[in-house]
Design brief:
Layout lengths: L15 H20 L3 E2 L5 E3 H8 L4 H6 L1 E4 L5 E4 L4 H10 L8 E10 L11 E10 L4 H18 L6 E6 L3 H17 L6 H9 L10 H6 L12 H16 L5 E2 L11 E8 L8 E7 L3 H4 L7 E7 H10 L12 E5 L4 H15 L5 E3 L6 H10 L4 E5 L1 H6 L1 E6 L7 E4 L3 H10 L1
Parallel strand pairs: 1-5, 7-8, 12-13, 12-14
Antiparallel strand pairs: 2-4, 3-4, 5-6, 6-11, 7-9, 9-10, 10-11, 14-15, 15-16
Helix pairs in contact: 1-5, 5-9
The protein binds adenosine-5'-triphosphate (ATP) and magnesium ion (MG).
Length: 426
């Protein structure tokens, strides 16, 4: 026998036992995005490598070591998208959606990063992302954060997540700060690890984010970015905080929150949880006022976030928040005796016409009552609709309830649609 072929490490199948959780999550995400007037955009999964180098930044973890990059047959360098914001900006620029107008967009789909696979971290994972273009004021920052907070409430996990908030200031303020930080880091160079020494010159703010405790202790007394903010940045951040306060959204200001992508300025935020072990960030985003121009468009402010759907699904499952999902099948049709299957399938078609959301599974392949009942039960259906020779003669069906304590009942063919409607309403 030849060896069976396995999926690529870190790239997962989503089996039918999980797809119903995914579908529930996706439908909440879609609905909440439209509750705030956002429209869907769909972008390709493969883009020019240059797009990510120019947006995410040459010296970020993603670009330096996580991208799936390959040469197309004609020699162009292509990359499987590691995130969606750059793709969304590329599409917006290309189709003239951004300049001098407002856009509120969302997208959902697979992203690819060559990281070490572990719980909550995969090589193909899925993000839901949302971006607003053309609004420079803090109202949109706050509104989008409120939108994320609504997601957690609707999914029942709001008690298990914390909002962390920071401001990165403007590009100029960051440049001034950067000089001061490099000066400070140079004095402490002998206490830094190799990664931080390298970053000190290429991307010094990322040193603040180091997970190495020795580096963190060397950072005590480092200058703070917020000390370099001018009036406008201070007011912008104040504006975001005020609106969150007014809406009763709790947050923690984390001055070390710098994000791993280079395009952010001013507001950045993350929603974190301790119910997922070390992969604790479920959602992250912020403002990126320079990105559209950096990618060749006319200067247009932007604000957005992305959330990891796998982490959300893991969280919902581990917190037991995925009970009462609708099963894949509502009603299972059992057919017994000569010619019953032909009649039963014709009836099932009529019922599907009448109750458009119904999920009816018709038994196939024959067999006795015991065998068909077993299948009915396994399907997850709430009821079995039994159609035998007697039933056909009387134009009735027998309903057997598969869950809970209900008496079996008999009813006319034409009464079945209202029973089915009630079944899915309940
Ligand atoms: P992390 O710090 O966990 O590496 P990140 O800062 O690289 O996250 P972003 O690029 O901001 O993450 O992506 C937004 C969200 O996408 C993350 O908060 C997380 O929920 C999810 N995510 C990122 N990378 C992965 C991955 N490899 N596997 C699963 N989910 C991921
Ligand atoms: Mg990462």
């Amino acid at each position: 026998m030849s060896k069976t072929i396995q999926a690529i490490r870190g790239m997962n199948d989503c089996l039918p036992t999980e797809t119903n959780i995914w579908q529930m999550v996706e439908s909440v995400l879609r609905r909440v995005a439209s509750n705030y007037g956002f429209a869907e955009i769909r972008m390709p999964i493969v883009e020019s490598t240059a797009l990510f180098k120019r947006s995410i930044g040459e010296v970020t973890d993603i670009v330096e070591k996580e991208m799936y990059t390959f040469d197309d047959r004609n020699g162009d360098s292509l990359t499987l998208r590691p995130e969606g914001t750059a793709c969304c900006v590329r599409a917006g620029n290309q189709h003239g959606l951004l300049y001098n107008q407002e856009q509120r967009l969302w997208y959902m789909g697979p992203m690819f990063r060559h990281e070490r696979p572990q719980k909550g971290r995969y090589r193909q994972f899925h993000q839901f992302g949302l971006e607003a273009f053309g609004i420079a004021t803090p109202d949109i920052d706050a509104e989008i954060i409120l939108l994320t907070s609504r997601l957690w409430r609707e999914l029942g996990i709001n008690e298990f997540v914390t909002l962390e908030l920071n401001s990165l200031g403007s590009t100029e303020e960051r440049a001034n700060y950067r000089d001061a930080l490099v000066e400070f880091l140079t004095e402490k160079e002998d206490q830094l690890d190799e990664d931080s020494k390298r970053r000190m010159h290429s991307n010094p703010l990322r040193v603040l984010d180091s997970k190495n405790p020795e580096v963190q202790s060397a950072l005590v007394g480092a200058p703070k970015l917020s000390e370099y903010f001018e009036q406008e940045s201070l007011e912008h951040f104040e504006g975001v905080c005020q609106r969150l306060d007014e809406a009763g959204i709790n947050y923690v200001i984390n001055e070390k929150l710098v994000r791993g992508l280079d395009y952010y300025n001013r507001t950045v935020f993350e929603w974190v949880t301790d119910s997922l072990g070390s992969q604790g960030t479920i959602c992250a985003g912020g403002r990126y006022d320079g990105l559209v121009e950096q990618l060749g468009g006319k200067a247009t402010p932007g604000f957005g976030f992305a959330l990891g759907i796998e982490r959300l699904v893991l969280m919902l499952t581990s917190l037991d928040k995925v009970q009462n999902l609708r099963p894949q099948v509502d009603a299972y049709i059992i057919m017994l005796g000569e010619g019953a299957d032909i009649k039963a399938n014709a009836l099932a078609e009529k019922w599907r016409d009448k109750v458009i959301d119904i999920r009816i599974q018709s038994h196939c392949g024959g067999g006795n009552m015991k065998k068909q009942m077993k299948r009915a039960d396994k399907s997850g259906a709430q009821i079995a609709i039994i159609i035998g020779e007697d039933e056909i003669a009387n134009e009735t069906v027998t309903i057997k309830y598969l869950r809970g304590q209900h008496e079996q009942q008999s009813m006319a063919f034409e009464e079945v649609p209202s029973l089915l409607s009630n079944l899915i309403k309940g």
